[in-house]
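Lecture notes, continued. The same structure-token format from the folding unit now serves as the input rather than the output. Read the line below as a description of shape only.
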């Protein structure tokens, strides 16, 4: 608990008297966004609205859909869910082919928001590990940041099968963090290594977390 001390001193008194006020500190909110989950939901509902088979075009319009998604997210999505625009936004994702320039541009376009892209770049030979690596990373950040921040998940994935893969991540994980430095107007790219412990792995399996998500079937409300 943070304490503020005020000193009162008088010329006729040698000792000072201390008064303390306990002031609760409100945690800043961080939204952990399972990017591919809500991006895929967005694309599926978008094309369904126009009676287009999503699977027939998903490899053709990815870039345009990315820009459309972020335009929607930082306007109608956060307005509809009443998300505070001054929050932190951590977009967790796998490395996507030919996507670096797109992410750089998104950071520049939406630099007024406090957002980061957190990318797990390694491709694992183990199919279950590779399939769930971004889901794992979302749950890791929800767990590891909860003491410092009010962490809220944006994802329609319930992670019901997380016990089948969480304990398989018993090794160091390399991540890449992309950020726009609003002080000197530059892009920052940092490589970090996450060291996992048995304690945090066990906590991840049992942890409960808050969600703030528009279900896929209701996305047409804002589209």
């Amino acid at each position: 608990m943070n304490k503020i001390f005020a000193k009162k001193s008088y010329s006729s008194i040698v000792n000072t008297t201390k008064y303390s006020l306990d002031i609760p500190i409100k945690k800043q909110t961080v939204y952990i966004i399972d990017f591919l989950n809500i991006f895929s939901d967005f694309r599926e509902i978008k094309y369904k609205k126009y009676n287009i088979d999503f699977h027939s075009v998903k490899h053709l319009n990815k870039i345009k859909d990315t820009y459309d998604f972020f335009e929607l997210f930082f306007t109608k999505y956060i307005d509809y869910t009443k998300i505070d625009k001054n929050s932190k936004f951590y977009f967790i994702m796998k490395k996507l082919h030919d996507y670096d320039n797109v992410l750089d541009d998104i950071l520049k376009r939406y630099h007024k928001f406090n957002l980061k892209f957190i990318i797990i770049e390694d491709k694992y030979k183990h199919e279950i590990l590779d399939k769930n690596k971004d889901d794992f990373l979302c749950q890791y950040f929800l767990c590891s940041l909860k003491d410092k921040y009010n962490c809220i998940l944006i994802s329609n994935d319930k992670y019901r099968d997380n016990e089948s893969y969480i304990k398989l991540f018993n090794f160091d994980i390399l991540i890449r963090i992309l950020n726009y430095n609003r002080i000197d107007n530059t892009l920052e790219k940092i490589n970090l290594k996450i060291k996992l412990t048995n304690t945090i792995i066990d906590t991840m399996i049992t942890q409960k977390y808050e969600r703030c998500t528009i279900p896929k079937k209701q996305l047409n409300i804002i589209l």
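Point for the exam: Residues 59 and 197 are 38 Å apart (CA to CA).
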